[in-house]
Design brief:
The chain is of the alpha/beta class and about 300 residues long. It is built from 10 helices and 8 strands.
Length: about 300
């Protein structure tokens, strides 16, 4: 019955539930994170990490209930059946809307380890969420521009070293590191300015993905390639809350990390070219897949019911 309320009413109620859910779980995260901080014993830290992950998964579970309660979405998902919560993953995805994050959290809920993002250091000041990200050991990174490095050469490589130290925390418990390869959300204006060779995607940014590999090394066991398509067109977060998204299609592929993907992207020119070729080929295939999914949506392919 809630789904038949006017869109703005549904959106407002759904947004309130998101806020209440976040306010409820964040203090619990902070308490456990504080205990982990003051008890510097490795076995206890690992135990506290498990509790923190469970709290975060409970937060996602309520958000998923929120989706179900206020939206009537037809989910067409394939490729998530053979994943494991005991592996270390790098998740690569296209990016069209903030809704993508909710989609990823829903389809991977209790299928792979909790998703963690590399976050700009400045975002730690976001109310509630910044503290939650800190409590969950999201790696906060401070990237220096090329011009800044030229003026301060002694800081070269400092950002990578800081991130590598942050990733040391991921060795004790499986984790999924999430990376939107395009670096920003797709819009027609950005697509035009980039002169992107892809119809449905922006150009992939190889540096960010290579940065994860260089920071985490062989900690990453497998790559999860995610393709998200919205047959009715990508919507804003508010439009999603108001029930304007009726169909979401997702295709997932998982494969082991090839040794050729490991190297020094920023100092090895041959490796950098090889890595860019690999990522560009992946993006060409993803663009073709999105086009196929959107053109064939009239006859939905069998997916995983969610």
């Amino acid at each position: 019955m809630v789904r038949y309320l006017p869109g703005p009413v549904r959106g407002g109620l759904s947004f309130i539930l998101y806020i209440v859910n976040t306010v409820f779980w964040t203090p619990q995260l902070l308490v456990v994170a504080f205990l982990k901080f003051i008890i510097p014993i490795e076995i206890w830290r690992k135990y506290f990490n498990i509790i923190l992950t469970r709290i975060a998964n409970n937060w996602i579970a309520v958000n998923n209930f929120n989706h179900w309660l206020f939206n009537n979405i037809c989910w067409d998902v394939a490729g998530v059946d053979n994943l494991s919560r005991h592996e270390w993953y790098l998740v690569l995805s296209n990016h069209q809307s903030w809704v993508d994050i909710l989609v990823l959290q829903k389809i991977f809920y209790r299928r792979i380890p909790f998703l963690k993002f590399f976050i700009k250091k400045e975002l730690i000041w976001v109310p509630l969420l910044g503290l939650a990200w800190w409590a969950l050991d999201f790696p906060f990174m401070k990237r220096y521009s090329s011009s800044f490095i030229k003026r301060n050469p002694h800081l070269k490589g400092k950002d990578l070293e800081t991130t590598r130290k942050a990733c040391e925390k991921f060795k004790t418990i499986p984790v999924s590191v999430m990376n939107f390869v395009e670096g920003t959300r797709f819009t027609e204006e950005k697509h035009r300015k980039q002169n992107s060779p892809h119809k449905n995607l922006l150009k992939p940014k190889a540096g960010g993905t290579a940065f994860v590999f260089q920071a985490m090394g062989e900690q990453i066991h497998r790559i999860v390639d995610v393709t998200i398509a919205y047959p009715g067109g990508a919507k804003t977060f508010w439009q999603f809350l108001c029930g304007k998204v009726s169909d979401i299609t997702v295709r997932v592929k998982s494969f082991p990390v090839d040794k050729d993907l490991l190297g020094d992207y920023f100092n090895d020119l041959e490796y950098r070219e090889r890595f860019q070729e690999w990522l560009n080929a992946m993006w060409e295939e993803k663009d073709r897949q999105i086009e196929m999914l959107l053109s064939s949506r009239a006859v939905p392919s069998p997916g995983t019911p969610l």
